Amino acid sequence: MEDTIAALATAPGRGSIAVIRISGEKARAALEKVFYPKNPWEPRKLLYGFVRDDGGVVDEAMAVYLPAPHTYTREDVAEIHCHGGPVPVERTLKLLFEAGARPAEPGEFTKRAFLNGRVDLAQAEAVMDLIGAEGEAAARVSLDLMEGKLSRKVGELQSALTDLLAETEAALDYPEEDLEEMMKPALENRMAALQGELQKLIDNANIGRVALEGFKVVLAGRPNVGKSSLLNALSGTERAIVTAIAGTTRDTLEETIDIRGLTFRLLDTAGIRETQDTVESIGVARSRRAMAEAHLVLVILDGSEGLKAEDQAVLASLEKGKGLVVINKGDLPDQMEDGELQKWAPDIPIWHVSAKTGEGLESLKDALYRWALPQPLGSAGLTHERHVLAVKAALASLMRANAALDGDMPVDLLAMDLHECWEHLGEITGQVYNEFIIDRIFEKFCLGK
Ligand SMILES: Nc1nc2c(c(=O)[nH]1)N(C=O)[C@@H](CNc1ccc(C(=O)N[C@@H](CCC(=O)O)C(=O)O)cc1)CN2
Ligand SMILES: Nc1nc2c(ncn2[C@@H]2O[C@H](COP(=O)(O)OP(=O)(O)OP(=O)(O)O)[C@@H](O)[C@H]2O)c(=O)[nH]1
Ligand SMILES: [Mg+2]
């Protein structure tokens, strides 16, 4: 028998109402020892009453009892909605623990929903992603997965594999038949189609991951071009210190902004130049590391000064296909020579802005959005590294199956590879799992979820 667990389901701290959730066989008994309703108990009905201990009233509250199996965990569940202060919450929890419940571990309610088959692993993970979502895009992708979008896709791929397996196994039963002649071309076609679908999932994985984790944009450039001013202008804050002194920013600084629902992590960096200053040179090293780790680098130039050797050095160090040039200080007379810039930044898109007046910032934001999400959000499928690794492993198994077919290997080897492919896909939904991985996933959940 599983323990009965209880925990605060709402955020800790002060709020108008706090929800305490209980799940397990003793949920109802524990609730009845702690909460005294004004009217008789009725399942699935929120009742008014009092939390009491031996000394009297602990809180005026509401509570509900939900019998298994139609509950979040598929076990008996109860909830107490008490006043949202630490004292009523702690006292009510203590009473529940005395009444036979124990404190829940992080993610334990949702882990039970998974172990009891109400949701699969991808859906359970998506619950946590929704709670962590910073913007609409992250929420949208999480909701799709929570509702079963990825799980259905995995199911379709698995049933195609099952059909393939059935056919190869039929061939196993008739070893005297000539497999090659009979079914090789048909099998090859269907394996190629499956391979294409797995590859598409991998190719689109960055959409879901960018939606969930945000898109990392680094503002880089030589000192004084206006990187910090741009960070402030784009985020509408005064987060970064701005001065006319070159070398003002010493350390990288992150600010999160929302563009059309998508989260962007903007990173202001120390101006890149040769320097003898110890602190500044550490800052410059951090700038370079940030450029390497970013999804996109904005190379900021000062349009009022023209291209300098230090700008050229930054442009030269830019990874191909990973940068935009942003010419700042558009409110001042333009000194930038297009020919010179073309020489150092061939094929790099160029945007003109002014951090001071805000000119050009909206279209820069549009460009950032298009860069981050070249495909619509709806084409997102995989959202976690774990999913990508599983699909890559499935693809590798499928390629082995293909090679086995090509090399006229025995049919049972082919069947084994197809089966492995099926199992790797099952890692995503948790059909195939080991406890270590499950624990690692759920321990990252919030307490009470
Ligand atoms: N008060 C409260 N609000 C909450 C939750 C909760 O547990 N309690 N949730 C949870 O964290 C979320 C809602 N998610 C839920 C998902 C499934 C079920 C559930 O009981 N499912 C049953 C069907 C119930 C029915 O048909 O009436 C099932 O799948 O069998 C409940 C909540 C967000 N809001
Ligand atoms: N006229 C004008 N001045 C600007 C603009 N953007 C920044 N500045 C000025 O340029 C100077 C340098 O700005 P910062 O934002 O500190 O430049 P930075 O690139 O962060 O410099 P470091 O941190 O030293 O690398 C400040 O005096 C700003 O006020 C702009 O669009 N127009
Ligand atoms: Mg700065």
From TrEMBL:
Name the source's superkingdom. Answer: Bacteria
A single Gene Ontology biological process assigned to it is: tRNA wobble uridine modification
Which SUPFAM superfamilies does the entry mention?
P-loop containing nucleoside triphosphate hydrolases, TrmE connector domain
Where is GTP annotated to bind? 224-229, 243-249, 268-271
| Compartments, record wording | Cytoplasm
Give the E.C. number(s): 3.6.-.-
Location of the TrmE-type G domain: 214-373
Give the note describing cofactor binding and stoichiometry. Answer: Binds 1 potassium ion per subunit.
Q: Which GO terms describe its cellular component?
A: cytosol
The record's keywords, sorted A to Z, are: Cytoplasm, GTP-binding, Hydrolase, Magnesium, Metal-binding, Nucleotide-binding, Potassium, tRNA processing
Task: Provide the top EC class.
Answer: hydrolase
- UniProt binding sites for (6S)-5-formyl-5,6,7,8-tetrahydrofolate: 21, 79, 118, 449
Main location as per UniProt: cytoplasm
Give the Gene Ontology MF terms in alphabetical order: GTP binding; GTPase activity; identical protein binding; metal ion binding
List residues binding K(+).
224, 243, 245, 248
Q: Could you tell me which PANTHER family the record lists for this protein?
A: TRNA MODIFICATION GTPASE GTPBP3, TRNA MODIFICATION GTPASE GTPBP3, MITOCHONDRIAL
Q: Which NCBIfam families match?
A: mnmE_trmE_thdF, PRK05291.1-3, small_GTP
Write out the similarity annotation.
Belongs to the TRAFAC class TrmE-Era-EngA-EngB-Septin-like GTPase superfamily. TrmE GTPase family.
| Subunit details | Homodimer. Heterotetramer of two MnmE and two MnmG subunits.
Q: What does this protein do?
A: Exhibits a very high intrinsic GTPase hydrolysis rate. Involved in the addition of a carboxymethylaminomethyl (cmnm) group at the wobble position (U34) of certain tRNAs, forming tRNA-cmnm(5)s(2)U34.
What protein name applies here?
tRNA modification GTPase MnmE
Lineage runs:
Bacteria, Bacillati, Bacillota, Clostridia, Christensenellales
